[in-house]
Structure formats: structure tokens, C-alpha cells
Design goal:
Layout lengths: L1 E3 L8 E2 L7 E2 L2 E3 L5 E3 L4 H37 L19 H15 L7 E5 L5 H12 L5 E5 H10 L9 H10 L2 E5 L8 H16 L4 E5 L3 H8 L1 H8 L4 E5 L7
Parallel strand pairs: 6-9, 6-10, 7-8, 8-9
Antiparallel strand pairs: 1-5, 2-3, 4-5
Helix pairs in contact: 2-3, 5-6, 6-8, 7-8
Length: 255
């Protein structure tokens, strides 16, 4: 705006191709002079409204991106693989009664969560155990501390603490896995099955049992093979208090 000493007889005309020509407004200043309108107020209002909408669009887009990043980080920290990221129960296609029952059992488990009841999922390769387990994590991870992890990875973590330069300890790792709201241990039977490894896994499963925290284990072995792999004491802890087993006893769906 420019300033003038007084309001002239011939008022300044604001020319606007969009809103038409109109007389300028004069606003008195504290020193007695006047500010003279130099632009179309309607254009300014429209520009401000447009900018406000654009700012809101950017804010919403940023919020969506931040939420997406947060969710992906949460799921990555929960151990969900990229292949199974955001997989839901709808992604598990049933072609036989066994698959339908397994899917319904897993969905019911989620519906009844939190629970202290553990679950054993056994069956051959390619029968959908890990997919269903990932769908369970997907359903719970935004509200509960969950993790799906391969047994061999737990063993490696614990053995890594034996190194002199380790920044953590067996106790801290076992405490972490013991306190999770839900721990799913995948590929049980892929480890060596030494007495030390069995002791590790028993400490975790027993610690969770004592704290009434549920554990789900997944294995390509049958129940007897699971007992050999992690010890009968572990299986007893998983079955106590109403823990159940799902047998994936159909052929692989992988081509």
C-alpha cells in the first residue's frame, strides 16, 4: 500500500480483470495520513483461501506419509518380512476344510487377544503357517508389542552376547522376548537342537508362561519333532492352560 496526505476528490480506481474495476479504500494511519488500497481485495482473499487449501493438502499428505513410515517401521521391528508386509487374513486363500479351520482358528485367536493361551502351528512347507502368523501380527501390532522371529535368530542373538565386545547380555535379550505381548517363534527345528539352545528357548517360553504371556511356535515338523527340537518341557508349557495346536496337514500351495 502507498500513503497519501488526504483522501482525494477523485478516488483511485482498482482495475481487476476478474472482479471488475472498483474504487480503492483509504485507511487512516496514526499520523493522520492514509493508506491507499493498491490491489483487489477479492483476489487477495481468493489467493489466501487457495493457499490455505494447499497448505492443508500438504499437511494431510505429510501426516499420511509419516503414518505410513511409522507403520512400516513398527512392522519391520515386529519381524514381518517384506513379502508378508501388510498381509491380512483375506490374503490367505482357502481351498480345503483344513485351511478354512486353520484360518478361523487364527482369526479367533486375534479376536480373543490379549490371552495367556499359547499356540503350536505344525505342518509341511508351503502350507501357509507364516502367512497366517504374519496376518495375526498385522492385526495386533498397532496396539500390542508383538514380534515374529526365527528360532535360529534368537539363538544367534544369545550366542553373540558371549563375545567380549557385546553391548548386551543374555539376560537382556531373554527379558525382551519374555515381556512381549505376543511372541511368535518361526522355523522351530531349523536350529541345531543342542542342550544349550534348548535351555535358551525354555528360559524364554517358561518366562512367558510364568508371566501369562502367550507364545506361538511354528514348525515344519510334527509335534514329536517339535518336542525333539526344543524339548518336551517347552511343549508342556505351551500346552498348559489351554494351549492348542493347529495341524497344517495338506500339500504345499507353492508352485
Amino acid at each position: 500500500m502507498k500513503r497519501v496526505d488526504s483522501i482525494p476528490t477523485q478516488l483511485h480506481i482498482i482495475k481487476c480483470e476478474k472482479h471488475g474495476d472498483h474504487e480503492a479504500k483509504y485507511t487512516k494511519c496514526h499520523d493522520g495520513k492514509y493508506f491507499v488500497q493498491q490491489y483487489c481485495f477479492d483476489c487477495v482473499k481468493e489467493s489466501e483461501a487457495k493457499q490455505k487449501l494447499e497448505d492443508e493438502r500438504i499437511r494431510v499428505a505429510d501426516d499420511i506419509e509419516r503414518d505410513k513410515t511409522r507403520k512400516e517401521r513398527l512392522r519391520a521391528n515386529a519381524g514381518i518380512s517384506k513379502r508378508n508386509l501388510y498381509k491380512t487374513f483375506d490374503d490367505y486363500i482357502c481351498t480345503n476344510e483344513g485351511q478354512t479351520k486353520a484360518k478361523n482358528d487364527c482369526m479367533r485367536y486375534v479376536e480373543n487377544f490379549p490371552t495367556d493361551k499359547s499356540l503350536i502351528m505344525v505342518g509341511g512347507v508351503g502350507t501357509g503357517k507364516t502367512l497366517l502368523a504374519s496376518a495375526m501380527i498385522e492385526s495386533l501390532v498397532d496396539k500390542h508389542k508383538c514380534e515374529i522371529v526365527k528360532l535360529i535368530e534368537i539363538v544367534r542373538e544369545l550366542k553373540a552376547t558371549w563375545s567380549r565386545d557385546s553391548e548386551t547380555s543374555e539376560e537382556k535379550i531373554i527379558s525382551w522376548y519374555t515381556k512381549l505381548d505376543l511372541l511368535i517363534i518361526d522355523e522351530v527345528g531349523s536350529q541345531f537342537g543342542s542342550d544349550t539352545e534348548k535351555l535358551f528357548i525354555f528360559e524364554i517360553i517358561d518366562g512367558r508362561y510364568q508371566n501369562m504371556k502367550p507364545t506361538i511356535i511354528i514348525s515344519n515338523l510334527d509335534i514329536n519333532g517339535v518336542k525333539d527340537a526344543i524339548g518336551e518341557r517347552c511343549v508342556d508349557r505351551l500346552r498348559e492352560g489351554g494351549g492348542s495346536m493347529i495341524a497344517f496337514n495338506w500339500n504345499s500351495s507353492r508352485a
